[in-house]
Write a structure and sequence with these properties.
mainly alpha
């Protein structure tokens, strides 16, 4: 086999040592999982933003709160995060206002707590598996570097058995080792870019939800006795 054939990517992978092959296989598996969650989170965040836009339009169009609540309660599994926050807050407000000796401020505080709990669940759902992307971005280069170091050690160990070292003898071993680093970077770079983008998008959505909770609490605060029932 000539030098050009030895340095082809497929040949380098096939001729790598067992440990380097395991490192490459691990990095390829991590990369596939990373891309899977990149696509999943991309669709999830896009859907959350779209449903938030839709509900905000309906809410601020001046519709009846009871009708919005019934719509959210009847289609809860397909509702967006802001819609579920509204449903939780309005349900708690109506329940508390139905009790005797409960003033508006107390009912609004209860609604705010219910909305906050739902808000935390919705944000946690959006942020799920982002830690995996962050770990992929930070750990993959080091895993690849470990395979590279091991491969280079094997390449130089092999030189001890020859009388005179040449480029043709050392190049395949070093090249196969560097492939591990390349695969590590291939896994890490998309994960880091996606994590930063998703974290920014989720932060923007969460700010919109928090603003809605405050605005909706102010609306409930202005509700007179019996108006929300």
């Amino acid at each position: 086999m000539n030098l050009s054939e030895d340095l082809s990517i497929i040949s380098l992978v096939l001729n790598a040592s067992l440990l380097v092959k395991l490192v490459m296989a691990l990095l390829i598996g991590i990369s596939f999982m990373s891309w899977y969650w990149i696509f999943r989170k991309s669709f999830a965040i896009r859907g959350a933003r779209s449903r938030t836009d839709k509900f905000e339009l309906e809410f601020w169009s001046g519709g009846d709160l009871n009708a919005l609540f019934q719509s959210a309660a009847n289609d809860r599994h397909n509702a967006g995060g802001m819609e579920r926050i509204f449903e939780a807050g309005y349900r708690e407000f109506v329940k508390l206002r139905g009790r005797q000796n409960i003033d508006t401020a107390t009912a609004v505080d209860g609604a705010r707590r219910a909305m906050r709990a739902t808000y935390q669940r919705e944000v946690d759902e959006l942020e799920s598996h982002l830690a995996f992307l962050a770990s992929t971005g930070s750990v993959s280069p080091y895993i690849g570097l470990f395979g590279t170091v091991w491969g280079i050690m094997n390449a130089f160990r092999g030189l001890s058995n020859v009388g005179q070292a040449t480029l043709a003898q050392v190049a395949p071993g070093i090249a196969e080792a560097l492939v591990a680093t390349a695969i590590g970077l291939f896994a890490a770079i998309p994960a880091v870019v996606a994590y930063n983008r998703f974290a920014h998008d989720i932060d923007r959505i969460s700010i919109r939800w928090e603003s809605f909770m405050e605005e909706f609490s102010n609306i409930l605060q202005r509700q007179g006795p019996g108006k929300a029932q």
